Amino acid sequence: MLLQIFVVTAVLGFAQGLECWQCSANSFKECQKTGKLVTCSSSEDVCSTVVRRYFMVHRIWKQCKQKQSCLSDREQNWDKFGGNNQCNDNFRSSICTCCCQKDSCNVNEMCKGKVTLNTCSAIRPNLKHGRMFCTNGNKVGSKCLFSCTDSGFYLNPAGHSTSQCMGNGEWSLKPPCCSRPCPPYIPFDLVWVFTRKSREDLGLVQRTLRKSFSKLRREEENLRVGRIVYSDVVHEEVSFNLTTDWWNVPFGKLQAMLKFLPPDLGIVNTGAALKYVKDYMLGKDHWDLSHADIVIAVTDSESDDDVTVIAKSLRDDGVLVYSVFLKTPENKPNMQQLLDIAGEEEHVFIADENLEGIGDRIADELIGHLCQNICDE
Predict the structure, then answer these.
(1) CA-CA distance, 3 to 10, in Å (whole number)?
(2) N or C end of the chain, less CB within 10 A?
(3) Could you give the residue ranges of the DSSP H alpha helices within the chain?
(4) How confident is the model at residue 174 (pLDDT cuts 50, 70, 90)?
(5) Which pLDDT tens digit goes with each residue over 296-318?
(6) Could you tell me how far CA 338 lies from the centroid of its own chain?
(7) CATH number of 16-100: 2.30.180.10, 1.10.287.1770, 3.40.50.300, 2.10.60.10?
(8) Contact of 105 with 47, CB cutoff 8 Å
């Protein structure tokens, strides 16, 4: 007999429905004071809050409700084009519906109306390599049409040929840009930052990465590459700016140039090298370019100066920063410092002595990132 009572109690406890606050009042304060928590029937699976406003007078209902019915009422809250809006604090009268699915979730639910915005964010005034026509600028209801006019350029994201400014102040689709297929076309500037200590690995690094980036179209308007070599200071005599085609310089010539550098003091100031890149290679006169900016720091040593502040400054400017550590039995990576340089784990790469696969991994991550955000340059 005791077992039967226990089973019945357990079943009743399991079958207990959702609990919602129930009230019918003229204010939220009154609803809290006069309302009560009730157990919903098995067919009622959400808690509902309805607020009707007549000028400054409110009427509030809270109750259990069927989910589909509540969601249907809620769909009337917001008209995407900003007209005939039920739930809008700009109107003298409105009705707002809110739905939630957890016990007591509507106890403090205010269910406020939204405010219709008059405009969306401005779209770039001209569409490079294409044209744009908007029926009413960036005001609510305006419809913008986009098309690419130059040969070889396509809308990106594909299919975003029309976008409308909606009543919530957002465009119905992200406005596109006109771009070439990505890859092989990716407009970005890339600066390699090599430590002087890793000069023995420079040829291997250069050959590995050149092969990985061969899938890109190297045109000056599309992709430019520079590099610096540093120890305690940047060695300008063996560095190349973004407009110099150093990829085709024979490795033997690069080695000969490195032999004439001053004696190596054994100091590695990666922070100073990154500052040089920011000040002289990606300076203010560079910001007018539509290219994305990439910095890849290749090292086999821990930095002797601070890297955190300058690396963050580069990233705050929109520069993608990667760190590559050339691991040897003698040199172990300082993972925290590499993360301080790159800013995120996906941009930190550890390479063994033969650099197997490192170039492809860097290229794939970089290309995937840039092609996904081609319109955000």
Answers:
(1) 11
(2) N
(3) 2-15, 28-34, 67-74, 202-212, 251-259, 270-276, 308-316, 335-342, 358-372
(4) confident
(5) 998 888 999 999 999 999 999 88
(6) 21
(7) 2.10.60.10
(8) yes
